[in-house]
Task: inverse folding
DNA sequence: AGTGGATCGAACCGATCGGTACCATCTAAG
DNA sequence: CTTAGATGGTACCGATCGGTTCGATCCACT
């Protein structure tokens, strides 16, 4: 049956729906862990539609990763903004937000880091690098507001704690990872100003 | 031509040679980034020999990862042991050792983390988890010798710095990563005793 | 009413994959 | 010298992969 009986034909919506549906599947199975055929079955679209919208499997992958990076980065910035003016509170907001993702049953590590390890080709690695730059911007901002002597250094150290907590939560268990990293971050913050 | 003209026929040596030669190739290309046929060409062995020794591509992968984890873990423990009794010096030895690997031109991140992200199936993930436990043992040891109030906590925080430094060095550039992480680690060490 | 575009389902394509089989040839040991 | 086992090279197998094509069908717009 071509075209679902009650479905609305709207290319924009179709594209967005594919993106939303493909994101968790590619995250769970890995970029190469699922073929285009099975992926289309799961998404409820035909291969022709997928290829018309994204051209290539890699095109879909890039779109998914970009959207994910945008969403996560925005969520983190929002959490920081909602935490008030105190840099210590902002740090708490950051690591609380990460702990919430660590505790999700589907958590499998940072999607961007996983993607870079899987397709270690330039286009994907560039997205991961940009993702990390965005994190770094947020963290350096906190360091600056805290009056750190070397905000760039403290920001990078905080980035290491964020990424380290993610890795440890992925491979050594999520319990307490956010809190342990937060306590370390507070110590660094207190010592840097 | 079967059997190289001057080669020694010694199954043990052949197996070890395959392991040694396959390790950098699988690291550089990714576990799924190279097929068995090309891999065998690079290693200079026939597919039959490879399959006789390792049974499966996954068997080879597991053997490579185990050997790599053993080697890296031992090198880290040796570096710590050679640093003398001062926990601060031992920390320096740890992060200096990591910085040296970050600076290698072939550096592509932690091989075990990459593997877990690529083949995210249980056998490989278990190896990565064990690898991380080994790191943790070494770091908790340093925390204990430093007289930390909660050595398990400090050890886990140091693990986050180690893994975070690795991730940042991989995706944001190796320059100074080890040193920045070391300074953070020293701060934590000083504050924890 | 009718036209054009979006979609589905399925068949199909060439390439590549992991893995197996076979045989000629060489080494190692008796 | 002989024999058993290890190896290289090559061809081969079935499965799967990303991607293309085609026709039938349905929606959206005029």
Result:
């Amino acid at each position: 049956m071509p075209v679902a009986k009650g479905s609305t034909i709207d290319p924009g919506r179709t594209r967005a729906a594919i993106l939303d549906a493909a994101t968790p599947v590619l995250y769970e199975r890995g970029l190469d862990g699922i073929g285009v055929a099975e992926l289309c079955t799961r998404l409820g679209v035909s291969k022709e539609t997928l290829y018309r919208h994204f051209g290539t499997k890699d095109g879909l992958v890039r779109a998914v990763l970009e959207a994910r990076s945008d969403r996560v980065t925005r969520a983190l910035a929002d959490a920081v903004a909602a935490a008030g003016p105190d840099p210590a509170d902002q740090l708490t907001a950051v690591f609380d937000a990460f702990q919430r993702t660590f505790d999700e049953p589907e958590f499998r590590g940072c999607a961007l880091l996983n993607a870079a390890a899987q397709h270690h080709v330039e286009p994907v690695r560039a997205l991961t690098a940009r993702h990390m730059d965005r994190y770094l911007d947020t963290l350096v901002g906190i360091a600056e507001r805290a009056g750190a002597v070397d905000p760039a250094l403290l920001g990078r150290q905080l980035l290491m704690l964020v990424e380290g907590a993610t890795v440890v939560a992925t491979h050594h268990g999520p319990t307490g990872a956010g809190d342990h990293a937060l306590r370390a971050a507070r110590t660094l913050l207190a010592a840097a100003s």
Notes: Residues 1-4, 7, 9-11, 14, 40, 44-49, 52 of chain B lie near DNA strand D (CB under 10 Å from a C1'). The mean pLDDT of chain B is 96. The interface with chain A takes residues 30, 32-33, 108-109, 113-114, 116-118, 120, 125, 128-129, 132-133, 136, 153, 156-157, 159-168, 170-172, 176-177, 180-181, 183-184, 187-188, 191 of chain B (CB under 8 Å).
